[in-house]
Structure prediction request, 916 residues.
Amino acid sequence: MKKELRLTVNGQPYELYIKPKTLLAEVLRDKLGLTGTKRGCSSSSCGACTVMLNGMAVKSCSVLALQADGGELLTVEGLASGAELHPLQKAFLDHGAFQCGFCTPGMLMSAKVLLDENPNPTKEQIKEGIDGNICRCTGYNSIIRAVTAVVKGEYKEEK
Amino acid sequence: MSKYSVIGTRVHRVDGPEKVTGSAKYTFDIVLPNMLYGKILRSPHPHAKILNIDTSQAEKLIGVKAVVTGKDTLGRKQGIWRRFPELCDEEILCRTKVRYIGDPVAAVAAIDEDTAEEALDLIEVEYELLPAVFDPLEAIKEDAPQIHDGVELNINVTRHIEWGDVDEAFKKCDHIREDQFKCSSQAHVCMETHDAVASFGYDGKLTVWTSTQSSYYIQRLLADMLGLREGDIRVIKPPTGGGFGSKFELDSAQFCASVLSMKLCQPVKIVLTREEEFTATKRRTPMYYYLRLGAKKDGTLLAKEVRVITEGGAYTAMGATALYLTGFFSSFPYKYPNYRYDGYRVYTNTATTSAMRGFGAPQSTFVGESQLDMMAEDLGIDPIEIRRKNGMTPDYEVPGQAFIQSCGLHQCLDKIKEHIKERGKLPPNHGIGVAAYGFMSGGIFNWFDTPYAFSAALVRINIDGKVDLFTGACDIGQGSDTTLSMICAEELGVKLEDIRIFSGDTGVCPPDLGAWGSRETLMNGNAVKRAAADAKQQLLEFAAAKMGPNIVYDFDIKDQWVHLVDRPERGVSYFDIVKEAIRGNDGEAIIGRGHYTPHRKGMISPAYSFGVQAAEVEVDTETGKYKLINVTTAHESGTVINPVGIEGQLEGAIMMAGGYGFCEDQPMDEGKILNPSIADYKLIRSLDMPETKILEIDTYEPEGPFGAKEAGEGLTNPTAGAIGNAVYKAVGVRINDLPITPEKVLRALKEKGKQGK
Prediction:
């Protein structure tokens, strides 16, 4: 029996009918075609599927889509404003904070939520903020440098 | 000012904008019209005969489109050591026997993954269980179960390397050490699991999109296994979510998706689950090591004898190469006048062991650098000094094996010595351990038996000056697309944004062996440089004809300016020359070709990188837990083409190699891997990651493009050894088996405490 789901994703409202067991990650990727959000483990251990739901970082592989009913979501596709990249995206580019790029969408969303909650995190707090996201390529330090550069105001968001 | 305009500069990755916006389309993201989803049924037994497979119930399930077993294949066996048919031992879809928990026996294609999964439960496989063996030391015994017919004592491959007179040399030594070590397994844990979308059409042609390190290998191996012509198969590598050695052999996702698609003439997608990734793909080779090392009182190393037994798992894979390379790199990075290695790879009923970043060298470096520190202590010599005394130098020949041209090992040792001095007196229970290492820039061996050049590239200059670079090199995250584009831009004298790279697509790119053995920068870099030089030469001929200077002048292009080398102000725009050259060429775009195959460079590799790493740890003697405080690496990789890329390789290697020393392990019970999830397989996360410092040493490698050599895998070699030596320096206990866990440290501390009383 399918159920109705209403979501706002990256500012766009959606109405869908889904099976109750459908995961949020499946709705985003398979129903809405937002494949930027990745899946690396399906057990909420790797963080590749991290998205922002009502201001919080959630692992979309471990949330039923219906649990997000009525919610506001931001995925990696919604970070940039048109052609203008988000400060975190610019910093990731400058600092080489990704290689294979598969963890990057989740990593960016964890960093975004961290900075929304605490615009001036310490290095230790940045590490804590991304501790739920595994990156097998970079060794994290370039990611920490990129987030630090944003914290320092090196990438002012254009209004 | 650098003489280069592009190389050595800090650039954005060419695939960067796609990757930071989530718009990069991985194999994982591909959906084709009319596409089906596949799942693979795997053996729950480590060793069993297949008596019967009944697929009838699964086939009846609504939504199931096809079920295939080994009977639907040509029954061929494949392997990457194609020159040796007896080592091509893996059917992928087993017909008569399974050899490890995870061996594929059937595959299903259905309208969605859930249906395919449900169908797997309806397949009935009748097995006759066979006695199984899991440890190579057991498998090599006379009464052990035989895993492959006709393979005595389960010995899959043996390797012998020897030079000098080892037995005679040991007689002349003042001090001899004999030590044993055990190196554990390690999972690659690519963030993108193995996956493939195979689409076979009514035209008889197969296209496979897959996450791979070598499109060409997959194309060739699929051709062998499916009975198709190589040219009827196109393998496309989209952005790939990591490889680390796990993705250059034909895997079950690629093969099963292809078999299913050929049966249905519909696209089939298979994505391995994380659990399958841990249990049924290849992994780092566990090794039992025996080492005998002999030295003079002054620390001169006279002889080394190495015996290794490796846990092969069920099939050969690239494990035979790991066996060879661990033997060669056990002599690294020192000038042993006498050296002997005997290695045995033994089949076991466990998941196959094969290539993983460092390819046998992280194992040999851990054991060798541990033992060398013990030797230095026995002789009362500083660890840095014993390495300096015996370390390789430029223009050194490893007898009968290899030629070392550039080598900055001694400068690296100097830098690390300074670094240790700067750290000053350490707090209690802190220790700094060092490890020296080297690695190859691509293998010379051709066990795959490719008839093509090892690397090839094609450069096409279009009317607007935009350059298309075609190469079979595979960017799996390590950044070869960026590095090769930089080499192309530099050689051609244009800007990085003038280059558009097409890579890893067998349909449009020349064959290339792909990304393994740290070969792309040197081998593919040379091919790209030559292709760019060929194209440039064609432009320069037009420039010379147009400008008509005295013929003694040479032309070159730099920063899009075609000019006389000795009179740089005299020139014309690159864009103008391109337009005229193409018009003069009867409208044909300018095309440059280049290839590279190493010749007369010894047995192993055309060039070697070197480095020394210092790891600092703090040990809690109450719990045995320790923290990685700092890892500092003095490293030389010839000319640095892409500095951001090298930093990423280095820091990333510390996460992976530190994990090998610190926490990563795959415990097993009767052949079953006990921690097949990211929750249970411990990796270094951001909070465990140490500070990292890079001390870059300047060298120039004559064989490499612009003097460059490898910078990828070698960095994985030293960290486990450096950690082991650091723990010893900190609290005086030596752990000889990886990983160095708190339990082992605590046990050793207790043992030491008892002895002290």
Notes: Chain A has two domains: 3-78, 87-151. Chain A has a mean pLDDT of 96. The two ends of chain A are 45 Å apart (CA to CA). The domain at 87-151 of chain A is CATH 1.10.150.120 (DNA polymerase; domain 1).
